[in-house]
Structures are given as C-alpha cells and as structure tokens.
Design a protein that fits this description.
The complex is a heterodimer of chains A (289) and B (342). By secondary structure, chain A is an all-alpha fold. Chain A contains 11 helices and 2 strands. Chain A has helices at residues 2-31, 39-56, 61-82, 92-114, 140-162, 164-174, 176-181, 186-208, 218-233, 239-258, 265-277, and strands at 130-133, 136-139. A two-stranded antiparallel ribbon of chain A has the order 1-2. Chain A is globular, with a radius of gyration of 19 Å. Chain B has helices spanning 3-15, 19-34, 39-61, 70-85, 92-114, 119-139, 141-144, 169-191, 193-203, 205-210, 215-241, 251-264, 270-289, 294-308, 310-317, 319-329. Helix content of chain B is 73%, strand content 0%. Chain B is an all-alpha fold and 342 residues long. Chain B is built from 16 helices and no strands. Chain B is globular. Classes of the chains: A mainly alpha (289), B mainly alpha (342). The interface between A and B is large, with 43 and 45 residues.
C-alpha cells in the first residue's frame, strides 16, 4: 500500500516536471501551430546553465534556478526573432526539418563544450534524502518540485485567465487576423509567449537534471515525451496538457516499477491509441481548426 | 486537340525516358568499375538511395510526412538477418523479397493509423511506431539479440552461385541491380494513372476526393509499397554488412533520411539517389574535419536549407545544367525543377 502511494507521489512529481518542461511547447505547437522539435534544446540549455553556476561558480541552487529561466528565455527570444518567425507560415515539413537541424546542432554543441557524459547538479543538503509521512516515503527534492511546479501552474492559469496579456494571447490564438485588427500586436504576443515557454523549459531542465538525467542527448531522448504531453493534452487550455503530463508521469513511473520489462512500450501504445481515437487530443477541442 | 488528350499527351511525354536518365545510370554503373576500392561506401550510398526513394514515394508523391520511416527499414533488416541466421531462407534474393514483404505487412497494418489525421498526428504516429518497434526489439532480446544485435549472420551465395566477397564487389553490384529494378518499378508506378492520382491527392485531398479518387485507398496502397521498399533497403543493409542491431530503428536514421531527400529534392525519384550521394559526401567531409561533432554541421546544413528555401536552392543547383542545355539544344530547358512539396 505504501509503495503504491510512494509511486504515486513520484509519478506526480515526474508529471509536474514534464508539464513545466512541455507547456512552452503546448503554446508553440498547440496554439501557434508550429512544430518545434527543438524544444528540449532550450530545456537542456537551462539545465547546463544551472549546472555551471552551481557546480563551477558556487552559486546557491535556488539562485541559479531563475537564471536558468532567464538564459533559456533569452536564447529563445533571440532565436525567435532571428530564425523562427520566418517559418511560422511554412509547411510542417519545413518546420520539422529546421527544428531537427537545430536539435542536432545543440546536441553536438553541448557535447563539444561540456562533454558527452551525464552531469549532476550539486544539491543543497536540505533537499537530499527522504522523510516518512504516515509511513509513505517522500523525497524532499520531489516534494520541492511538486511545490514549485504546482505554484507555477496556478500562476500560469491565473495569467491566462485573469490578466490583460492572457486575454490578448487567447484572442491572438483564436483568430490572429481579427486580433490584429483590434490592435493587438500579434507577433509580439507570440514572441513573448515563445520566450516565456522557453524559459519555463529551461527551468524545467534545471529541475529535471536530478530526476531525468542531463546529458547532451536530452533533447532527442525526451522529445517524444513533450510531444505526447501536447498532442494528448490538446491545446484549448493549459489544463489539458497538465492532466496529460500527470497521466504520463504516473503511468511511466508505475510502468517502470510494476512491469519493468515492458519498458516504454506502454506509453507509446497509449499515445498511438489516444491519437487514433481522438486526433485532437484527449482534452482538445472536438472541431478541427 | 481536346484538353483531356492534351493532359494525357503531357503525362506521356513526362513518362518517356530522357537521355539524361540513361546517362545517369551508366555513370552509376561506371563508378562500379572505376573505383574498385570504394565498394563499401558506394554500397552504403546505394542502400541509402533506395531507402530515400521509399520515403520519396510517400513524401514527394503522396505528401505524407513521416518521422519514423526507419521502422520499416528495421523490420526488413531484422527479417533478413533472422532468415539467414536460422537458415529459413538461405537464398539472398528470395530472403530479400520475404523481408520486404514482412515490412510491407507492417506498412499495410499501420497505414490505417497514418492516413487518419493531419500532418502533426502523422508525425507523432509514425515516430511512435518506430519507437515502439525499437522498444519491442530491445524487449525480445532472445530473438533480436537485444543491444548486441544479431551476430554471426552468414549470407549464402546469390542464386547459390555468386558468393559475397570481402571487398564488397558482389554486394555493390547486387545492391545496384536491386536498386535499378525497384527504380524501374517506382518509375512505372509514379507515371501511371495511379501515380498521377497520388499527386492530385497531395495537392488537394478534398478536390481529389471530389473528382472521384478514393483518397484513403490510394494512400494505403502507396504507404504499403513504400514500406516494401524500405524493408528491401533494410534487408540489403543486413545482407551486405552481415549485422542487424537496434540502431536500425533509431530516430536519427529517419531524420537523416529526411535530410537526404531534402538535399536531393522530392517528387522526381532521382532526388533520393542524388541526395544519398551528396549526403554521404558531406558526412565524410564533416567527419574528417571533426570526427566527433559532424552532427553539428549536418544540423547546420538542414537549418540553412530550410531558411534559404528548398525551391530556391534547387533552382540555383539547376541553373548551370539548364544553361548548358539551352546553349547546346537551343530549346527550353528539360531539366525540370522538382515541384514543391507538403
């Protein structure tokens, strides 16, 4: 019984992490209809920035996290302004080729700068180990992830639903032409959202070094996970991707624990079945746009 | 002349063999005699060319974007390996066909999943299928040898007469023969009414359906055929290298394949062949400059190609040949710019 609860807890932490990593992609892929396979590269960038700051320069872990966010967002906005924005109107094939190219470049570049082995971020002692809560083993680090990611999710939902920027974004997504007719600077809104999504990915990358492992092949290894979150979760709100991440996280952890031999088999099968059953995602809109 | 016979006439003229095509194949054949110490890399290029041609059939002609074409390559590779390893089918040509058929069956089964949905769903589903097969191959390591791959494969002589030699001479001419035969078939297919209907589907599925083309059935047919081709390419891989390992399913293989086709251009069958040559040469070049980080430069090539625009690049590439033809023949250029895709 307690092992089930511990697994559930780990699964939730894993899922939350996936959500923070992938929710930027939910915007580009789901809302802007841009296939960005290089999303993991931004996460990796954040992770490596955090690693360098903490391990080499002796920054405290919590001070390095915001910088992981900022640096990934900065890379994101630079690339968006120079390269990505030329490709919004192109075919999906062009977008796929372009972002695969970027992914390959990032993998080789990080390999060149930092070496190909897995890196670890030195955690403060307060975050290590686990404690018992009513007999359920709870990892401190995972608890922190749940807290941070939970707060982020609530904040995101609030921004989207309550603020002026949120309503602009929703308008720009629903009908870019009408939105720009109303005086909303649609490219700017998209650029900002893109950068924010990249920043979140960078933060997720920094947080995930401990759980998912951080090495130069990160963007390729987890690309499919991010895509699953977005395609299964749909794009109508952030609740869809959120639930999809939780499902994926819990499913993956449970799958690895209870049927280790099946490997990632369960996840891929689930994804294919869901995509066939509901091509717009489990929580997506029913009508194709 | 009425409009309908005009269209037919045009289609027939397109389907006729040009001198350039004959010259192309003669050059390829001549390479086999000119560079006797380069058989291994040339065989590799032929294999890649066949694989790229397979993707061209669905991407260039039917407009299906696939990120998991390695699935069929892998199935063909493992099928050929297992057939040879357990002595089920000893004769390589027959084994090749059987392996191709195995991939074809998978292609047919998965085509129903692929024809549903839009580009994005297709990307995900094809990628998912390839990853699934990789996971399966790893899981059933008793059959596939797991991460070590199939070892100790011995390929019997072709037709029981011609043994595979150390230098890969047999392998090269064998691959070339297979590639040429399959090219003839593909050429016939894409210039048939069936092939023309595929182009119609690619340009506008809705209109194609409106003029009475059974869109889904045609897509299933071409996807199945492409799977057969990819399976053959995979089987050739196993037969000429005597290995089959998990990386036949790898995502990088599918991604590289896209690059091959993009370099060569889609939708005129030669794209895969030309692209394969250029890709391997690029790869050789980059890996001599930076053995470990050639992937960076491959990525850069992709990015630049997309940013410059594939069509524009092909126009540049064809500028000189077109000029030559214009000067010599004094007529409009016959080297066609491959039509746009997706």
């Amino acid at each position: 019984m307690t092992s089930i609860l511990t697994n559930l807890f780990d699964g939730v932490a894993y899922g939350m992490l996936l959500f923070v990593l992938a929710c930027g992609l939910a915007v580009t892929l789901g809302l802007m209809n841009f296939v960005n396979l290089a999303h993991g590269a931004f996460a990796m960038a954040g992770g490596y920035v955090c690693m360098v700051l903490v391990n080499r320069m002796g920054w405290p872990f919590f001070a390095a996290l915001p910088l992981a966010f900022v640096s990934a967002a900065a890379i994101g906005i630079a690339l968006e302004r120079t390269l990505y924005r030329h490709l919004y109107a192109r075919s999906h094939l062009d977008q796929v080729l372009f972002t695969i190219g970027l992914t390959f470049m990032s993998v080789a570049a990080v390999d060149y700068i930092q070496g190909s082995s897995r890196v670890f971020i030195n955690l403060p002692t307060g975050l290590q180990g686990q404690f018992d809560l009513f007999g359920v083993g709870i990892g401190r680090y995972r608890l922190m992830i749940i807290v941070i990611c939970g707060l982020l999710t609530i904040a995101l939902q609030m921004v989207l639903a309550k603020t002026r920027f949120g309503s602009r974004l929703r308008a720009a997504v629903d009908d870019p032409r009408a939105a720009s007719g109303l005086g909303i600077n649609v490219p700017q809104v998209f650029a900002f959202t893109f950068a924010f999504g990249c920043g979140l990915a960078g933060l997720g990358g920094a947080l995930s070094a401990e759980i998912l492992g951080l090495d130069p092949y990160f963007p390729l290894k987890f690309m499919i996970y991010f895509l699953i979150v977005v395609t299964v979760g749909g794009s109508s709100s952030i609740t869809g991707p959120f639930l999809a991440s939780l499902l994926l996280g819990i499913g993956d952890v449970a799958g690895k624990y209870y049927v280790p031999k099946m490997g990632p088999f369960v996840i891929y099968t689930m994804m294919i079945v869901i995509l066939i059953w509901r091509p717009n995602g489990l929580f997506g809109r029913t009508a194709a746009r | 002349m009425s409009a309908s016979s005009d269209v037919g006439h045009h289609a027939q003229r397109q389907a006729r063999w040009h001198y350039g095509e004959a010259a192309f194949w003669l050059i390829v054949l001549a390479c086999g005699f000119l560079f006797p110490n380069r058989y291994l890399i040339m065989t590799d290029i032929l294999r890649l060319a066949l694989f790229a041609m397979s993707l061209d059939l669905i991407l260039g002609y039917a407009g299906i974007v696939s990120l998991g074409h390695a699935a069929f390559f892998g199935v063909g590779a493992y099928a050929a390996g297992l057939l040879a390893l357990h002595g089920i089918v000893n004769e390589p040509v027959l084994a090749l066909v059987v392996a191709g058929l195995a991939a074809m069956v998978l292609g047919f089964a998965t085509s129903f999943l692929v024809i549903r949905g839009v580009d994005l769903t297709r990307l995900m589903v094809t990628l998912g299928i390839a990853l699934l097969l990789e996971a399966l191959a790893e899981r059933f390591s008793k059959i596939t040898g797991g991460t070590d791959g199939l070892q100790g494969i011995e390929i019997q002589p072709i037709f029981g007469e011609i043994p595979f030699d150390m230098f890969g001479k047999t392998g090269f001419f064998y691959s070339l023969a297979v590639l040429f035969l399959l090219f003839l078939l593909a050429r016939r297919v894409v210039h048939s009414p069936f092939g023309l209907s595929l182009r119609a589907i690619k340009n506008n599925p809705l209109r194609a359906a409106a003029i009475g083309i059974p869109v889904n059935r045609r897509l299933i047919a071409i996807y199945t055929l492409a799977a057969f081709y990819a399976g053959i390419a995979g089987a050739l891989f196993t037969q000429t290298t005597a290995i089959a390992s998990l990386d036949v399913f790898a995502f990088e293989r599918s991604a590289d394949l896209m690059l091959v086709l993009v370099i060569g251009g889609t939708g005129y069958l030669y794209g895969g062949l030309i692209g394969a040559v250029l890709f391997r040469m690029l790869q050789e070049l980059f890996s001599t400059i930076t053995p470990q980080y050639w992937q960076f430069w491959i990525g850069l090539v992709l990015v630049v190609i997309v940013l410059v625009g594939r069509q524009r690049l092909h126009r540049w590439a064809l500028y000189v040949p077109n000029l030559v033809i214009k000067q010599i023949a004094g007529r409009k250029a016959v080297v066609a710019v491959p039509e746009s895709d997706a």
